[in-house]
Design a protein that fits this description.
The chain is α/β, with parallel strands linked by helices and about 375 residues long. It is about 35% helix and about 20% strand. It has two domains: about 130 residues, NAD(P)-binding Rossmann-like Domain (Rossmann fold), CATH 3.40.50.720; about 190 residues, Dihydrodipicolinate Reductase, domain 2 (2-Layer Sandwich), CATH 3.30.360. The strands form two sheets. Strands 13-12-11-10-6-9-8-7-14 form a nine-stranded mixed beta sheet. A five-stranded parallel beta sheet has the order 2-1-3-4-5, sandwiched between helices. Helix 1 crosses helix 12, helix 4 runs parallel beside helix 5 and helix 10 packs across helix 13.
């Protein structure tokens, strides 16, 4: 079958996330990047498109220009899916416009800047029956998929403790300088939404907790840290999680964990055993059981699940990383665009992004209301 035609919004020359998405899109030979809007400056966008050896006629001035001109093309030449890699405040209007015009969408997280916006997208996506993926990138790691399968198969028994932690230190050099923290878009509510730390990385941890366990958080209690009175955005936080009366958890997220790079850890404990995974060493899944030595599972081996092996591209002993993880999400999108019966958990859906937005808002509300338990909606 011919490759799926992919457009990209944002992710220009200086964008790390742009590189990640472009590599992921090319990984399984399922997509062909045909054009897009890479920068607010059309000239910069054209220059970048030239470097990618794209048709200048498919490098558009803005989203309206893209939608109008792509719609005028024969159906077999149009972009079939568009990736939204812009700052948070642009996710909603761009995704809404794309859905209204029948495009499939791949969107960076957080999905929107408010839960209400997320619900609008969810309703529209169902009406249009399009494919919509939210790039909670880490769900694509083979050993995370192995963890999910083992938990679903009851290999660690009934879950009784969930512990997810995501620590970075990148804001530490900025937050203590008033001028620098005022110039960072992540700390600007107009561009980032109501939350920085929870909205940026805490939502990854929340999604992961629900993804691997297969159960939803019912209530949360949060304590956030803003550090300075003139800083409107959280940069650190601890959130207690209640999945049910008997299943409890904790989510810790920080962007002022000095010296930390991208320390995302997932620990799930059942009554028969536990599983541990670290994003900075993603090819090792640790299985803990009472009275036995710790086991280390690695990708590519036949003992892994079909779900894990489907996302494994290299033989055992060859490390797979974040590009591969994002690549697995793009591959899942491609398979479902071609045949919607092939979903099987292949990528995080719009509903996952909507849950993430609800979590952000409930976390901020719990803190501002005096660190109280706050119910999540079904």
């Amino acid at each position: 079958m011919s490759k799926i035609k992919l457009g990209i919004l944002g992710g220009g020359e200086d964008s790390l996330i742009g590189i990640l998405h472009r590599v992921a899109a090319n990984m399984f030979d399922q997509f062909e990047i045909t054009g897009g809007v890479f920068d607010v400056s059309h000239e910069k966008s054209l220059n970048f498109g030239k470097k990618l050896q794209l048709d200048p006629g498919r490098i558009y001035k803005d989203l309206d220009d893209l939608v109008a001109k792509e719609a005028a093309l024969p159906e077999d030449e149009r972009m079939q899916v568009v990736s939204v890699l812009t700052p948070n405040f642009l996710h909603f209007p761009m995704a809404k416009k794309l859905l209204e015009n029948g495009f499939n969408v791949i969107c960076e997280k957080p999905l929107t800047t408010t839960y209400e916006e997320a619900k609008i997208l969810n309703k529209l996506q169902k009406e249009k029956n399009t494919v919509f993926a939210v790039t909670y990138t880490y769900t694509g790691y083979p050993m995370i998929r192995q963890m999910k399968t083992m938990i679903a198969n009851g290999e660690i028994g009934k879950i009784q403790k969930v512990d997810v932690q995501y620590y970075q230190g990148w804001i530490n050099p900025l937050i203590h300088d008033k001028e620098k923290r005022g110039a960072t878009w992540r700390l600007d509510p107009e561009k980032s939404g109501i939350s920085c730390c929870i909205g940026d990385i805490g939502t990854h941890a929340f999604n992961m907790a629900e993804f691997v366990t297969g159960i939803e958080v019912r209530e949360i209690l949060s304590d956030l840290n803003y550090l300075y009175e003139d800083n409107p955005m959280d940069i650190d936080g601890t959130v207690l999680l209640r999945f049910s009366e008997k299943v409890k958890g904790v989510l810790r997220a920080s962007q002022i964990a000095t010296g930390e790079e991208n320390s995302f850890t997932v620990q799930i404990y059942g009554d028969k055993g536990g599983l541990k995974w670290e994003q900075e060493n993603p090819n090792y899944l640790y299985l803990l059981t009472e009275g036995k030595p710790m086991q280390v599972l690695k990708p590519g081996h036949e003992y892994n699940s079909e779900f894990s092996l489907e996302g494994t591209k290299l033989p055992p002993g060859h490390p797979e990383g974040i590009f591969d993880s994002m690549g697995n999400i793009y591959y899942g999108v491609a398979m479902v665009i071609k045949d919607k019966s092939k979903f099987k958990g292949a990528y995080p859906q719009l509903n996952d992004g909507m849950r993430g937005m609800q979590f952000i808002e409930k976390t901020v509300a719990s803190h501002k209301n005096g660190n109280v338990w706050t119910k999540m909606e079904d």
